[in-house]
Amino acid sequence: MDAQVCSSLKIFRKMVKPKTEEEIELLRENAILVSKTLAEVGKIVAPGVTTLELNRVAETFIRDNGAIPSFLGYDGFPAALCLSVNDVVVHGFPSDYVLKEGDIVSVDCGTLYKGYNGDSAYTFPVGEVDAKTRRLLDVTKESLYRGIGAAVAGNRTGDIGYAVQSYAESFGFSVVRELEGHGIGKEMHEAPGIPNYGRRGHGARLTDGMTICIEPMINAGKKDVYLARNGWAVHTADHKNAAHYELTVVIRKGKAELLSTFDFIEKDGNIKF
Questions:
Q1: Closest of 11, 41, 57, 33 to residue 116, by C-alpha
Q2: What is the CATH number for 122?
Q3: For the residues 76-88, what does the mean pLDDT come to?
Q4: Residues 196-225, buried b or exposed e (16+ Cβ, 10 A)?
Q5: Distance between CA atoms of 184 and 219, rounded to whole angstroms?
Q6: Under a CB-based contact definition with an 8 Å cutoff, are residues 183 and 249 in contact?
Q7: Containing domain of residue 123, as a range?
Q8: How many domains, the chain?
Q9: pLDDT greater than 50 at residue 9
């Protein structure tokens, strides 16, 4: 689950403390569980399935594995998953909406286990999607990996943002400014904020042992968004599609270490991605 910039400033002003290796292992356990949960959801994404059913599968799987769905009740959020269809960028509610051929659904999942948090997201196509939507998914996911490539000790958060932004915009897509990634640990949202845009050499310095969530939120059209009346769902202003991918990483010297992974989705022959 991304952080909203305006509501997160007081969190992100706090000093960033690198995690111990013991803490990182606890975060890894959560990250793997979230990764597996996303795959369980992906197995049933198909035309004719409601988003409520996706939420039910995720909550059952998380609880069966001894964890708590951390989104449920977070600042009043009513579900275990954020399920955002088509022009909903993030924070969509599960509902009786029936997925149809050509939709996309962004699935954002969090867990709380042994006192630490997990958080990752993946955007699934529903059946076959058109060429522009396919490109949006591919570019957004690759922009995440570009951001991870810049997430090394000695760099700054602006280096991550620049990597995401420059890649996404080179394809004519746009980066949402009001939402960003974040640190993670005992709290779901910790310092520093991780914007998906920025300038090289600017922002908070990245240090070995920091744990962060990088999560590009990329619009097919313009960057502008608006908040729905429910106070949660963020829509693209032009109602064009948006995609969202998120992984949790540890900052290391030379190369970031992935804690969560998309392998459970992309190496399962029964999941369309």
A1: 33
A2: 3.90.230.10
A3: 98
A4: bbbeeeebbebeebbbbbbbbbbbbbebeb
A5: 25
A6: no
A7: 3-266
A8: 1
A9: no
